[in-house]
Amino acid sequence: MTANRWAELRQVGFATLDHAAAVRTATELLALGPGFGDPLLAELGLADFTAPVGPGTYVEVLAPVTPGHPVARWLGKVGGSSGWVLSTQVPSLDGVKERAAEHGVRVAVETQAMGHDIIQLHPLDVGVLLELDAFLPRDGWFWDDLPAAQAAQAARTAKADDILAVDVAVAGPRDPAAMARTWAAIIGIEPPVATADGAVLAFGRRTVRFVPARGGRTGIVAVDVHATDREHGPGQQGMLCHTMISFI
Questions:
Q1: Residues 199-208: what's their mean pLDDT?
Q2: Rounded to two decimals, what is the model's pTM?
Q3: Quick one: pLDDT band at residue 144, thresholds 50, 70, 90?
Q4: Which one is predicted more confidently, 72 or 155?
Q5: Candidates 3.40.50.2300, 3.10.180.10, 3.40.50.1010, 3.40.50.300; correct CATH number of 8-247?
Q6: CA distance 159 to 30
């Protein structure tokens, strides 16, 4: 690990077989503004809705457009909707593939988007579809210059203004703490902090908490967002794609 390695949690993505219903739930629960579609996902047979939660953080709802799509088949096994992908920002992807191979983790996708290199790590190996995006500067992100994204920014503080934490539930062969260490080693960031039942990994000021599987569900099981209304907002909860959304 080198001193200039860092990672930022930028986007939490959910997958569903009923896109309209999930987008409606997300919009109402988080009071989201107008969304926009990732132009690259349409080419992959996925409908997409992305909207800002706060400066530099986004929520995404995607759905396969055909029943034979691989994502559709996976969704059929997990109840029709689920947390799906965490998109993280890193300064570069140097050494990521090599470190992944050392830890027995497969690279599911290696590509480019808008001139930036992307690696996605296989969800069966790391618990979720973990996307690492080489993007500089650190305070920039893909959607900064999209007109649709800029229009949506006006409503981003309606109810929540940041993503604070994500819970990733883990069930063998790696336990939660071991999974957290694997993530840290592959990305090249500071090791996780142990907790009573797992570990916490820092992504800038945001965190990913690794916990034991809950009720048979693994992967993204909870997301904490920062309530804009500090008097009445904290303590509210709701479900989005079988994922608990809590206002903190």
A1: 97
A2: 0.94
A3: confident
A4: 72
A5: 3.10.180.10
A6: 6
